[in-house]
Amino acid sequence: MASSKTMASLLSHVILDLDGTLLNTDCIVNQVIKLSLVKYGKKWDGKMAHRIVGKTPFEAAAAIVEDYQLPCSIEEFISIITPTFSDQWCNIKALPGANRLIEHLRSNKVPMALASNSPKLNIEAKLSCHLGWKESFSAIVGGNEVEIGKPSPKIFLEAAKRMNVDPSLCLVIEDSLPGVMAGKAAGMVVVAVPSLPKQAALYSSADEVINSLLDLHPEKWGLPAFEDWIEGTLPIDPWFIGGPVIKGFGRGSKVLGIPTANLAAENFSDLLSDHTSGVYFGWAGLSNRGIYKMVMSIGWNPYFDNTEKTIEPWLLHTFDEDFYGEELRLAIVGYIRPEANFPSLESLIARIHEDGRIAEKALDLPIYASYKDSPYLATSLQQQSNCQ
Q1: Which of 45, 89, 108, 193 is deepest in the core (most CB within 10 A)?
Q2: Is the peptide bond before 151 cis (omega within 30 degrees of 0)?
Q3: Which has the higher per-residue pLDDT, 151 or 76?
Q4: Do residues 215 and 2 touch, judged by C-beta distance below 8 A?
Q5: 5 vs 72, 199, 215, 224, CA distance in Å?
Q6: Does residue 145 carry a pLDDT above 70?
Q7: Residue 158 pLDDT more than 50?
């Protein structure tokens, strides 16, 4: 998911949203609201999440009370959930690419502001849990500091005013539709990073729509480029998952001619919520066989329009037989690209093979090759040899 419009002028300042853009607030919000609704005998419907994304706390609470026909006032519902939210502020994790972006802009002396519909005190409480974030911003504007929040442009105009810059020189990075509308109404360039899946088509007013902050290329807007990409790959903090190989959709070998070793995504729902969809690569350890290079997709696979987020690793090795049920351990060490839809099956297959070639070559680089010796991968092999 990536689209952009031509931009001739050069920008000098960046204004960031917080919840859903830098922080994975949606995960905590869903948990808190889910538990609160249980007290009323109601069940949270994740498909209604778009009703509260980008709203002020009052507007979000109003939507919940209305949608679930709760027997309480908006103020009462806010008083119920606020203490639980406050206890969770430091459990909210940074979204992929957030620390990288803040550090990049700070080190290149690009002035930044934060503009969020959340109250200023809540913003500062969240920022305090992330080392160096608060000090990185020239201005922080909360929703309670302007007459009306997003989609009104007032909050972004106030941020520009505090940085003493013309709005037309500002790049806004937003995850919500109200935020995109506010940025455009303020006369700013807007990059949308939708926090809800399969929503890119709704953000046509944005100047660019990207899958995650990992896919942001500031040089498009006259800002300093990242310099950490290596031969078409982006090193990431490694993460590790494992489990028995299961049968997938049956399309890997039969439809694509590319056999994937699938893991049960439902066993990793919390972990997957911390990682953006896209194509990654790394090392795969099979308990009965050895350690192999692999490339994998995480997400909804737009071409096949999955209804659930999946994990589909492709081990870059030719096997003579299936290995369903065997223990598979993965060390994910790098990122290649966002998920994308393709006009034809042939173009999808060609792109997957290209991903494989990129991963195959990159994993020979020292920065990635060292993870082949990861204790996590070796443990399953050691356990197997001890049983023989």
Answers
A1: 193
A2: yes
A3: 151
A4: yes
A5: 46, 18, 15, 19
A6: yes
A7: yes
Q: Is 320 a catalytic residue?
A: no
| pLDDT (0 to 100) of residue 55 | 74
Of 124, 151, 29, 123, the closest CA to residue 82 belongs to 29
Can you tell me the distance from the alpha carbon of 192 to that of 182, in angstroms, rounded to the nearest whole number? 12
Distance CA 242, CA 327 (A): 7
Query: Which one of 215, 312, 339, 355 is the catalytic residue?
Result: 312
Q: Are 199 and 180 in contact (CB under 8 A)?
A: no
Distance CA 208, CA 350 (A): 26
Question: According to the 3-state scheme, what is the secondary structure of 342-383?
Answer: CCCHHHHHHHHHHHHHHHHHHCCCHHHHHHHHCHHHHHHHHH
pLDDT value at residue 41:
85
Q: Is 302 helix (H, G, I), strand (E, B) or coil?
A: coil
How much is the average pLDDT of 304-313? 72
What is the rounded distance in angstroms from the CA atom of residue 29 to the CA atom of residue 44?
11
Q: How far apart are CA 279 and CA 303, in angstroms?
A: 14
d(CA 54, CA 51): 9
Helix (H, G, I), strand (E, B) or coil at 184: helix
* 355 flagged as catalytic: no
Cα gap 259→322, rounded to integer Å: 9
pLDDT in tens, 175-212: 999 999 999 999 999 999 998 877 788 899 999 999 99
Question: Which residues lie below 8 Å from residue 95, measured CB to CB, with a gap of 6+?
Answer: 20, 21, 22, 23, 24, 212, 213, 276
DSSP 293: E
Strand ordering across the sheet containing 3-4: 3-4, 208-209, 189-192, 170-174, 13-16, 112-115, 139-141
- 197-204 long-range CB contacts below 8 Å, 24 or more apart? 197/277, 197/299, 197/300, 197/309, 198/300, 198/302, 199/50, 200/1, 200/3, 202/177, 203/177
Q: Number of helices and strands (H, E) in the chain? A: 12, 12
Reply yes or no on whether 219 is catalytic: no
Helical spans, DSSP H, in 89-220: 98-107, 120-127, 133-136, 154-163, 177-185
Give the residue-averaged pLDDT of 241-250: 76
d(CA 95, CA 58): 24
- Structure tokens of 2? 């990536």
224-241 burial by CB neighbour count: b if 16+ within 10 A, else e?
eebeeeeeebbebebebb
